[in-house]
Amino acid sequence: MKNGYPPTKRFALNLMLNAHDELLMLLRSKTASLGGGQWGVPAGKIENGETPREAALREMCEEIGPGHLVKEIDYIGPVRDTYYGGQFEIHLFKHLWSAGNIILNKEHFAYAWVSKESICNYDVMKGIEEDIAILDIWPTEYLNQALIPKHLL
User: Which of 37, 54, 58, 116 could crosslink 138 through cysteines, CB 3.0-4.6 Å?
Assistant: First the structure.
Protein backbone atom coordinates (compact mmCIF):
# COMPACT_ATOMS: atom_id res chain seq x y z
CA MET A 1 0.00 0.00 0.00
CA LYS A 2 1.47 3.32 -1.07
CA ASN A 3 0.22 6.69 0.16
CA GLY A 4 -1.28 4.91 3.18
CA TYR A 5 -4.35 3.53 1.38
CA PRO A 6 -5.02 1.00 -1.38
CA PRO A 7 -5.69 2.28 -4.92
CA THR A 8 -9.30 2.65 -6.01
CA LYS A 9 -8.39 1.49 -9.55
CA ARG A 10 -5.36 0.13 -11.37
CA PHE A 11 -4.50 1.14 -14.94
CA ALA A 12 -2.09 -0.06 -17.65
CA LEU A 13 -0.89 2.55 -20.17
CA ASN A 14 0.80 1.93 -23.53
CA LEU A 15 3.16 4.66 -24.71
CA MET A 16 4.10 3.67 -28.26
CA LEU A 17 6.83 5.30 -30.31
CA ASN A 18 7.37 4.81 -34.02
CA ALA A 19 10.69 4.89 -35.90
CA HIS A 20 10.43 8.72 -36.13
CA ASP A 21 10.28 9.10 -32.31
CA GLU A 22 6.58 10.05 -32.51
CA LEU A 23 4.12 8.99 -29.82
CA LEU A 24 0.76 7.43 -30.70
CA MET A 25 -1.99 9.60 -29.22
CA LEU A 26 -5.73 8.89 -29.27
CA LEU A 27 -8.48 11.51 -29.05
CA ARG A 28 -10.93 10.32 -26.42
CA SER A 29 -14.69 10.50 -26.75
CA LYS A 30 -16.18 13.61 -25.20
CA THR A 31 -18.25 11.39 -22.90
CA ALA A 32 -15.24 9.51 -21.44
CA SER A 33 -15.17 9.62 -17.65
CA LEU A 34 -11.46 10.51 -17.57
CA GLY A 35 -10.05 12.93 -20.13
CA GLY A 36 -13.19 13.32 -22.23
CA GLY A 37 -12.38 15.17 -25.48
CA GLN A 38 -8.65 15.11 -24.75
CA TRP A 39 -5.68 13.24 -26.18
CA GLY A 40 -4.40 10.16 -24.38
CA VAL A 41 -2.68 6.87 -25.06
CA PRO A 42 -4.07 3.33 -25.43
CA ALA A 43 -4.82 2.46 -21.82
CA GLY A 44 -7.38 1.06 -19.46
CA LYS A 45 -8.33 -0.54 -16.21
CA ILE A 46 -6.58 -3.68 -15.01
CA GLU A 47 -9.31 -6.27 -14.42
CA ASN A 48 -9.39 -8.67 -11.44
CA GLY A 49 -7.03 -11.59 -12.00
CA GLU A 50 -5.21 -9.80 -14.82
CA THR A 51 -1.55 -8.79 -14.72
CA PRO A 52 -0.62 -5.25 -15.74
CA ARG A 53 1.08 -6.59 -18.89
CA GLU A 54 -2.00 -8.65 -19.84
CA ALA A 55 -4.17 -5.56 -19.36
CA ALA A 56 -1.83 -3.42 -21.46
CA LEU A 57 -1.95 -5.89 -24.36
CA ARG A 58 -5.73 -6.32 -24.07
CA GLU A 59 -6.33 -2.57 -24.03
CA MET A 60 -4.04 -2.10 -27.03
CA CYS A 61 -6.10 -4.60 -29.04
CA GLU A 62 -9.43 -3.16 -27.84
CA GLU A 63 -8.56 0.47 -28.54
CA ILE A 64 -6.49 0.33 -31.74
CA GLY A 65 -7.31 -3.10 -33.15
CA PRO A 66 -5.41 -6.40 -33.29
CA GLY A 67 -2.30 -7.51 -35.12
CA HIS A 68 0.27 -4.83 -34.29
CA LEU A 69 3.98 -5.46 -34.29
CA VAL A 70 5.34 -3.76 -31.18
CA LYS A 71 8.27 -4.45 -28.92
CA GLU A 72 8.17 -3.61 -25.24
CA ILE A 73 11.28 -1.59 -24.45
CA ASP A 74 10.56 -0.35 -20.92
CA TYR A 75 8.20 -0.82 -18.00
CA ILE A 76 7.76 1.25 -14.85
CA GLY A 77 5.21 0.49 -12.19
CA PRO A 78 3.40 0.63 -10.06
CA VAL A 79 3.32 4.39 -9.55
CA ARG A 80 0.54 6.46 -8.00
CA ASP A 81 -1.15 9.18 -10.02
CA THR A 82 -0.43 12.83 -9.30
CA TYR A 83 -3.50 14.51 -10.80
CA TYR A 84 -6.36 12.44 -9.38
CA GLY A 85 -5.47 12.54 -5.69
CA GLY A 86 -3.14 9.54 -5.69
CA GLN A 87 -6.09 7.18 -5.89
CA PHE A 88 -4.91 5.27 -8.99
CA GLU A 89 -2.11 2.76 -9.43
CA ILE A 90 -0.46 3.19 -12.85
CA HIS A 91 1.67 0.74 -14.84
CA LEU A 92 3.56 2.31 -17.76
CA PHE A 93 4.64 0.30 -20.79
CA LYS A 94 6.90 1.84 -23.44
CA HIS A 95 6.74 0.14 -26.85
CA LEU A 96 8.47 0.51 -30.17
CA TRP A 97 5.93 0.31 -33.00
CA SER A 98 7.02 -1.66 -36.09
CA ALA A 99 3.84 -2.23 -38.10
CA GLY A 100 0.07 -2.49 -38.03
CA ASN A 101 -3.14 -0.71 -38.94
CA ILE A 102 -4.93 1.42 -36.38
CA ILE A 103 -8.64 0.68 -36.10
CA LEU A 104 -10.17 2.84 -33.38
CA ASN A 105 -12.92 1.60 -31.10
CA LYS A 106 -15.91 3.71 -30.03
CA GLU A 107 -13.96 5.22 -27.11
CA HIS A 108 -11.86 7.30 -29.52
CA PHE A 109 -12.53 9.26 -32.68
CA ALA A 110 -9.07 10.21 -33.98
CA TYR A 111 -5.42 9.31 -33.64
CA ALA A 112 -2.14 11.03 -34.39
CA TRP A 113 1.55 10.27 -34.31
CA VAL A 114 2.79 13.21 -32.24
CA SER A 115 6.34 14.55 -32.22
CA LYS A 116 8.04 16.04 -29.19
CA GLU A 117 8.02 19.39 -31.02
CA SER A 118 4.25 19.32 -31.56
CA ILE A 119 2.88 17.83 -28.31
CA CYS A 120 2.39 21.35 -26.95
CA ASN A 121 -0.34 21.79 -29.60
CA TYR A 122 -2.45 18.94 -28.17
CA ASP A 123 -4.88 19.11 -25.27
CA VAL A 124 -3.58 16.04 -23.43
CA MET A 125 -5.15 14.28 -20.47
CA LYS A 126 -3.84 15.06 -17.02
CA GLY A 127 -0.91 12.78 -16.29
CA ILE A 128 0.17 11.99 -19.85
CA GLU A 129 3.08 14.45 -19.86
CA GLU A 130 4.09 13.15 -16.44
CA ASP A 131 4.06 9.59 -17.84
CA ILE A 132 6.24 10.71 -20.76
CA ALA A 133 8.69 12.19 -18.26
CA ILE A 134 8.66 9.12 -16.00
CA LEU A 135 9.52 6.86 -18.95
CA ASP A 136 12.10 9.41 -20.17
CA ILE A 137 10.57 9.35 -23.66
CA TRP A 138 11.48 12.96 -24.52
CA PRO A 139 13.39 15.73 -22.74
CA THR A 140 11.03 17.57 -20.38
CA GLU A 141 11.66 20.94 -22.08
CA TYR A 142 9.25 19.79 -24.82
CA LEU A 143 6.48 19.21 -22.28
CA ASN A 144 4.23 21.59 -20.39
CA GLN A 145 6.35 22.25 -17.30
CA ALA A 146 3.24 23.09 -15.25
CA LEU A 147 1.98 19.52 -15.77
CA ILE A 148 5.13 17.75 -14.59
CA PRO A 149 5.90 17.25 -10.89
CA LYS A 150 9.03 19.14 -9.89
CA HIS A 151 10.92 15.98 -8.97
CA LEU A 152 10.80 14.92 -12.66
CA LEU A 153 12.13 18.18 -14.10
Answer: 116
